[in-house]
Specification:
Elements: H1 2-18, H2 22-29, H3 34-41, H4 43-48, H5 52-55, E1 103-104, H6 110-135, H7 163-167, E2 187-194, E3 203-214, H8 232-241, H9 256-269, E4 273-277, H10 280-285, H11 288-291, E5 297-301, H12 306-315, E6 318-322, H13 327-340, E7 352-357, H14 369-378, E8 382-386, H15 401-404, E9 414-418, E10 428-432, H16 434-443, H17 445-448, H18 455-469, H19 476-498, E11 504-505, E12 510-516, H20 518-530, E13 533-534, E14 536-538, E15 548-553, H21 560-576, H22 586-600
Parallel strand pairs: 3-13, 5-6, 5-7, 7-8, 8-9
Antiparallel strand pairs: 1-11, 2-3, 4-10, 9-10, 12-15, 14-15
Helix pairs in contact: 1-13, 8-18, 9-18, 18-19, 19-21
Length: about 600
């Protein structure tokens, strides 16, 4: 029976993958006898995967008279792409958005990778040498150690696991956790600190580093501000409601401004309903387990945020990972899931949920949403879209990647986002169909057990949303969205012209600049701070071992003067540290064109 079922599924895939519609299949091949069998054997899968309303239940799923094999659109081809979608950097939006989809992920020369591995090897060897000196009592160990009377107990501190912290991270620890003593806007003030024991401890000097240009915060639209004229409504809300609610939404913590915010978020996104949470991380990690469980399959992008990964693990679902933004890899997993079903039993999966992000915060890449939506419809899966970094930052009116690609928001089953970036606040939201939101109100751990969002934070989000939507009577919001887009294009173009390798989409506010070698990570951050520029540097294990980088986050609040100062400093520092690895810099291209012109004439 299982072999017949499996063979029938294989036949279905063969038939539907090569032809546009089943109607055309009937006319061409007179397979009227086989088609009812295919429909019958897949009806259970179709019923279980049919609508978003089914997504909200992990129990018995309602039956729907929908056939998974019925495709009435001719937009699907063998690869799962839309006929109008480019496989590389062409138009990847089904023709709805006419802008070309351009992303760059240049590779550094081979010698850079070799020297990077050599650098980590040298640091590792010296780490083992220093551990030997510590074991001999010749060097003091400042990390926590087991007490002598507990040597026979199960160890609390794994020595090998702390090797990286002791011997690699400590060398560059001064570049992280720097104390800020002002508003973290486009500029901020830093507390000056020094270390007398090689970064094991720090002491403040009592001095302040003034007016450091902030190139690391997610303040995309510049709403992390302290202008008293803009924050009047927030101050009034604090006087009326206080700072904390001290209760959950289901008890005594459901305020009228919470309901107002959820209605406005739904209107802004163009969906039926939404609900908000006090913490962005928990919006993912606590809601995914409420949507899927045992017997479900999660297909997760390999570069998804930790909150998505944690939520997937807590759900108890089977997790399979596809290559970053790789449509062929995702379709292969979907095809295998439909054909083979669950392991051992080969029963159909209860649900298949695809987890992706709008903008990936470490790569600066934008999700290939049109192609993923096409696959989701083709295989009757569900799509969970995390727009933490894209909402407010992309799209003509800041409505995220759905607007960026010109897609219908109803094509996304679960829309998630946070208020911690573009909105200058805290918390997150889940949006979609009303059935989905109503289910989460009673089944989400974040909704049932977490304290309600703080009233002034709620009012700040309302203020920003109304500003972006123009409901405050001004055009300031849309001007900030456009200014951010202008700053992104200018900054990225200048870096490419200088010869740096940068990752990501040309419209992404996250701009990773590749440093590669471990020794250059600390040197880069320290030299930039000397020029009053604050940057975020990231290395292994947060990135692949050969792809250490500096991550710049653009803001609408950055002036052209600020960006020019950063760019000029980067130009000089790139020469000083030999960071210009790109083979496709604009200067190189111009020289090549001039040489070819001279030869032709």
């Amino acid at each position: 029976m299982r072999k017949q079922k499996k063979g029938c599924n294989l036949l279905w895939l063969f038939l539907t993958d090569g032809l546009d519609t089943l109607d055309g299949l009937k006319k061409s091949f007179s397979l009227t006898y086989f088609l009812p069998n295919i429909k019958t054997r897949n009806s259970r899968y179709s019923a279980e995967m049919a609508t978003t309303a089914d997504l909200v239940s992990n129990g018995n799923i309602h039956r729907h008279n929908q056939n998974i094999n019925t495709f009435k659109s001719d937009a699907y081809v063998r690869s799962g792409f839309s006929n109008h979608c480019s496989k590389h950097n062409g138009k990847a939006n089904g023709g709805l958005d006419k802008r070309p989809f351009k992303e760059s992920f240049d590779q550094a020369p081979l010698y850079v990778a070799v020297l990077t591995y050599v650098g980590f090897g040298v640091v590792t060897l010296f780490g083992y040498l220093r551990d030997f000196l510590r074991a001999c009592g010749l060097e003091k160990c400042n990390l926590a150690q087991e007490r002598e009377e507990q040597k026979d107990f199960v160890p609390l501190y794994q020595d090998f696991e702390n090797f990286y912290t002791r011997n690699l991270y400590m060398r560059v620890r001064d570049n992280w956790n720097r104390p800020i003593c002002s508003l973290p806007g486009p500029q901020f003030d830093l507390v000056e600190r020094v270390s007398d024991d090689y970064n094991w401890t720090f002491r403040n000097t009592g001095k302040t580093i003034k007016n450091v240009i902030n190139m690391g915060s997610y303040n995309y639209l510049g709403f992390a501000e302290n202008n008293a004229n803009f924050l009047t409504t927030v101050a009034d809300t604090t006087r009326q409601y206080g700072v904390g609610v001290c209760s959950t939404r289901q008890e005594m913590g459901n305020l009228d401004i919470h309901n107002e915010l959820e209605d406005l978020v739904a209107t802004f996104l163009g969906v039926e309903d939404s609900m908000t949470f006090g913490m962005g991380f928990a919006t993912n990690s606590m809601n995914i387990p409420a949507l899927v469980g045992k017997g479900c399959l999660i297909l997760s992008d390999e570069l998804n945020h930790t909150s998505l990964v944690l939520g997937a693990r807590l759900s108890g679902s089977t997790i399979r990972v596809f290559k970053h933004n790789n449509i062929q890899s995702l379709e292969k997993l979907l095809r295998d899931a439909v054909v083979h079903g669950q392991p051992r039993t080969h029963r159909p999966w209860k649900k298949i949920l695809i987890l992706v992000e709008g903008i990936y915060s470490m790569e600066g890449s934008v999700v290939r949403l049109p192609e993923i939506v096409a696959l989701k419809k083709k295989y009757k899966a569900y799509l969970y879209l995390d727009e933490a970094h894209s909402i407010g930052a992309v799209g003509q009116t800041g409505r995220g990647v759905t607007e960026y690609f010109g897609l219908d928001p109803s094509d996304i089953d679960v829309m998630m986002g946070t208020f911690t970036k573009s909105f200058g606040a805290a918390g997150g939201y889940i949006a979609g169909k009303k059935e989905l939101v109503d289910f989460l109100r009673t089944h989400s751990h974040s909704s049932v057990y977490a304290t309600s969002m703080s009233p002034p934070v709620t009012k700040q989000i309302l203020r920003v949303l109304k500003c972006i939507m123009g409901q405050d009577g001004t055009t300031m919001g849309i001007q900030r969205v456009r200014q951010l887009a202008e700053n992104i294009r200018y900054f990225r173009q200048r870096l490419q012209e200088m010869g740096f390798i940068i990752y990501g989409n040309e419209d992404s506010p996250v701009v990773p600049l590749l440093l590669y070698m471990p020794g250059k990570v600390g040197a880069f951050a320290r030299e930039m701070l000397k020029k009053n520029i604050g940057v975020v540097v990231v290395g292994f294990p947060a990135t692949p071992i050969t792809e250490s980088r500096a991550r710049f986050c653009l803001s609408a609040a950055h002036t052209r003067g600020m960006l020019d100062k950063v760019l000029n400093t980067l130009d000089d520092l790139g020469d000083y540290l030999s960071l210009k690895y790109s083979r496709h810099s604009r200067s190189t291209q111009d020289r090549t064109l001039r040489q070819n012109s001279v030869i032709n004439h």
